[in-house]
Amino acid sequence: MAKKRTKFAIVAATAALLLTGCANDGGTEGGDGEGGTIALIMSHMSNSFVTTVASAAEAKGEELGYEVTVFDSEQDAATQVSQIEQAITQGYDGILVEPVSTDGVVPGLIAANDAEVPIATIVQQASQQDLAAAYIGGNETEAGALQMEQAIEAIGGEGSIAVLYGPMGSDAQIARNNGYESVLAEYPDVEVVFDQSANWVTAEALNLVENWLSTGTEFDAVVSQNDAMGVGAVQAIENAGQGDSIQVFGIDATEDGIASIEADGLDGTVSQDTPGIGELGVETMVQIINGEEVEAEVLTEAQWITKDNLSDLE
Fold first, then answer.
1. I need a surface site. Which of 58, 103, 204, 212 has the fewest CB within 10 A?
2. Where are the alpha helices (DSSP H) in the chain?
3. Which DSSP state fits 13?
4. 272/302 Cα distance (integer angstroms)
């Protein structure tokens, strides 16, 4: 499932607030005059998952005659709302937003609705999702459940695990954890001995897992809510000389995650077709802009990936 990547433009929060003079007048003339403009407002741009979504969205926009501009909210909900408001002012035809937090994005959704600018959520949902025209992404609860099932199976149905969360309160963190809990309820002999957020960040996960290991508390696996944190966990575990005794599992099947699996680091990950999410986001937003009816949820499918079936991603 390898996709051609294109260089994406990241518009940081400060830059977004300075670009009013560069607005697209009415947003009716796209990159080649055939389409229009779409703002893709990502919660952050700090790992390969989000950069893959963004570059795939840009490529699909170019294919469809739409200019897709990527904004980086830098994990700040207030910044994200400001960027949505700026996109409205600049006359974008449509807005795709990956919420920094489920509640924090709501004022931005309301602002877009008031301005009659189509807005949809991508990758993560909002707490008031009905304010968005659609959600495009994976089934996060299903992905979390699949990951936890596979992790528990890998440790023989019993033992101790540690969990690395994404930013607390984000949609993916909540939904993936709901999947975890639904599976854990069926396995009373599995104990969660550590669980904490590393905010999707590799370095934070490395430090956190190092701290867990330093306590002397034993665990059989790390279940990470994304590949980037899983890669950090692998590094911490290998640095401690415990690579043969602790397994690590991720979600997203990013380039970094796949490379780690190939190098006998991560033991497995969940693919939700990362580039497909970016492509579907733009395709769906174009349909919305054109006045077509779309499903409330446009979902990709979760697939378990290990070294044995990496070829399925090609």
1. 103
2. 13-18, 48-64, 77-89, 106-114, 140-154, 171-184, 202-214, 227-239, 255-262, 274-289
3. H
4. 5
Please report, as a single letter, which amino acid is at residue 148: M
Average pLDDT estimate for 70-95: 98
> What residue ranges do the domains of the chain occupy?
10-137+274-300, 140-271
Instruction: Assign 53 to helix, strand or coil.
Output: helix
- CATH 3.40.50.2300 assigned to 140-271: yes
pLDDT of residue 2: 30
Q: Residue 106 corresponds to which amino acid?
A: V
pTM tops 0.90, yes or no = no
Q: Which of 212, 161, 162, 214 is nearest to 190 (CA)?
A: 161
Tens of pLDDT, residue by residue over 115-126, are 999 999 999 999
Q: What share of the chain is helix, strand, coil (3-state, %, to 5)?
A: 45, 20, 35
Confirm or reject CATH 3.40.50.720 for domain 10-137+274-300, answering yes or no. no
- The one-letter amino acid code at 24 reads N
Residue 26 has pLDDT above 70, yes or no: no
**Domain 10-137+274-300 shares a fold with domain 140-271:** yes
